[in-house]
Design brief:
transmembrane helix; DUF1648 domain-containing protein; two-stranded antiparallel ribbon; elongated; mainly alpha; transmembrane; DUF1648; membrane
Length: about 160
């Protein structure tokens, strides 16, 4: 069944912030390109310190991956009828269930955009990402899914 979901204020704000993070990542790279050293960090270990280096051209891969993930998530958001959602979907609750899952997807898109923006920022400025980054990122992404999926399962 084809369903048209309204966009909530929460979804609109996070979508705008996600786009700004994506654009900021690209802009940061463009503005810093001439100031990049020939060798830049290409991987960060669990401690948050750079543990692999590559040519400055390798930093282009981060925005490319970000754009592809961003576009994929926008595509997925547009087709709620293809989602496998938790809980029992009825004609009475279909709008709420799908709206909840769309909010989850928008929240995850924001998280992914922030993660890639921050990694890009640290790479472009040759800084360590910090030991806090991986646990906080994973907590945000997993916590967002748990929050929205629990809401969907417990919705009456």
């Amino acid at each position: 069944m084809k369903i048209k979901l309204p966009v909530t204020l929460y979804q609109r704000i996070l979508s705008i912030l996600s786009f700004l993070l994506l654009a900021g990542q690209i802009l940061c790279l463009i503005l810093r390109w001439n100031h990049l050293p020939d060798e830049i960090p290409t991987h960060f270990g669990l401690s948050g310190q750079a543990d692999a280096y590559g040519s400055k051209g390798s930093v282009i891969l981060l925005p490319v991956i970000s754009i592809l993930i961003y576009l994929l998530m926008i595509f997925v958001e547009k087709f709620p009828e293809l989602w496998n959602v938790p809980g029992h979907v009825t004609p009475e609750n279909i709008g709420w269930i799908y709206g909840n899952v769309k909010s989850m997807l928008v929240s995850e898109k924001f998280g992914v955009c922030f993660i890639f923006f921050y990694i890009n920022y640290c790479t472009v400025f040759c800084r360590d990402i910090g030991a806090w980054f991986l646990p906080v990122s994973m907590l945000y992404l997993a916590g967002t899914m748990v929050f929205f999926l629990r809401r969907a399962v417990h919705f009456k």
